[in-house]
Structures are given as structure tokens and as C-alpha cells.
Design brief:
The chain has 132 residues and is mainly alpha-helical. It has helices spanning 5-12, 16-24, 43-57, 62-74, 79-120, and strands at 32-33, 39-40. The longest helix is centred in the C-terminal third of the chain and has 42 residues, at 79-120. It is elongated.
Length: 132
């Protein structure tokens, strides 16, 4: 016997509502149900649920995650497709990190600007930079 949905929540920190939503959207076809219709999560199911959450959190669309889940169920004939999917997602993540680094630089610049203005007691002492 595996874990109930509450056990899956404890293992993954994914809310039960999200797990149910993923199931409704066809992302969890591998999860078995017991005789009462309750989800029965195995260790493999938990690992897949964590992976699905990871992919979602990196911006992958649910339809692409569903495709990935189907590829997993289709077996070894889809290995190259799965590799390509993850290589693409890595590029997406790297691009987002680069953009976030630019945002971080802007925020750090503003922190330094306002520290200097606070120390001087006025923005006039720092520069005529607008608050953008």
C-alpha cells in the first residue's frame, strides 16, 4: 500500500488541490486508485509528482508536461524526445536566469542609490536620477 493524497502532500509540499488539478488535467495517469477510488501514491508516483512540479515551476506548459508523462508511459522509444524536451527546458531556465540577473543588477543599483541618498539625507546629493 502506498500513500494517500495527504501523504503525498507531506512528501512533496504540493497542495492537495494542485495534485487533484494535475490529476484532472491528465498529468497523473500512472497513479493507481484503491478499491474506494482514493489515490494510492507509490514512491515512483511521488518522484514523478515532484518532477511535474519542477517542470511547472520552471515555466513549462501543462500540455507539454502531459506530453512528457505520456512519453514516459510509452517507454524507451521516446528517450530522444524526452532528452530534447529537457534540453529545451534547460535553455528556457538559463534564459530566465540571465534575465533575473539583469533585474538583480537593477535592484542592487537602486539599493546603492538609496543608501547613498539616505546617508546624505537627500537625493540631490546623489544625482538627478529619476525613480524609474
Amino acid at each position: 500500500m502506498g500513500l494517500s493524497i495527504s501523504g503525498a502532500v507531506k512528501k512533496t509540499d504540493i497542495p492537495a488541490t494542485t495534485i487533484r488539478y494535475y490529476d484532472k488535467k491528465g498529468l497523473l495517469p500512472f497513479v493507481r486508485h484503491d478499491e474506494n477510488g482514493h489515490r494510492d501514491f507509490t514512491k515512483h508516483d511521488i518522484t514523478m509528482l515532484q518532477l511535474i512540479s519542477c517542470l511547472k515551476n520552471t515555466g513549462m506548459e501543462l500540455s507539454h508536461i502531459r506530453d512528457f508523462v505520456q512519453m514516459c508511459q510509452d517507454g524507451d522509444t521516446t528517450l530522444e524526445e524526452r532528452l530534447a524536451l529537457f534540453e529545451h527546458q534547460k535553455t528556457v531556465i538559463e534564459d530566465r536566469i540571465k534575465q533575473d540577473q539583469k533585474y538583480l543588477q537593477t535592484v542592487e543599483h537602486k539599493i546603492n542609490y538609496y543608501k547613498a541618498a539616505c546617508a546624505a539625507g537627500t537625493e540631490d546629493a546623489v544625482s538627478n536620477e529619476d525613480c524609474e
